[in-house]
Amino acid sequence: MKNFGKYSVLALSAVLLFSCGNAQKGKEEGTKTATETAAADSLSKAAAQLGKVEFEESAFDFGQVKEGAQVKHTFVLKNSGDAPVIISKVTASCGCTQPEFSKSPILPGGKSEIHVTFNSEGQVGKQQKIITIQSNASNGLTTVQLKGEVLAK
């Protein structure tokens, strides 16, 4: 009986020890869930407060031009989001197409322009040049196209 008492005290201590640990674990998990929920809410609010790039036209068809002609076009974009948009980089699919753009922030509701010049020298036939725009907007990578046909000299 003496050993029974010793073992029952030991068993009771173990039960209390493990149950206290589980209670603390449950509290930590509850706090972690609340923290994760708050972080997720902050991220979704931040995402809702991003700028958004929208172009007035996604493609420009310059029709037919004689080889050697320079085609110039301006793509107009609007920030339809809730935060300023900054264009970080604009590239063209070919060295024959040169984009120019402003690095000034585009405020919500504001507009900006991307000027594109296509040099048709040596580019005979149907053409499709892709201009890729990188920015901090929610749609951070967007494209527009310049297309048409270059006739031989």
Automatic annotation (TrEMBL):
Signal peptide start-end: 1-25
PANTHER family tied to this protein: LIPOPROTEIN-RELATED (PTHR37833), SIGNAL PEPTIDE PROTEIN (PTHR37833:SF1)
Gene3D superfamilies noted in UniProt: Immunoglobulins
The name this protein goes by in its record: DUF1573 domain-containing protein
Entry annotated with the keyword Signal: yes
Keyword Acetylation included in the entry's annotation: no
Species of origin: Sphingobacterium paramultivorum
Keyword set, alphabetical order: Signal
Pfam families linked: DUF1573 (PF07610)
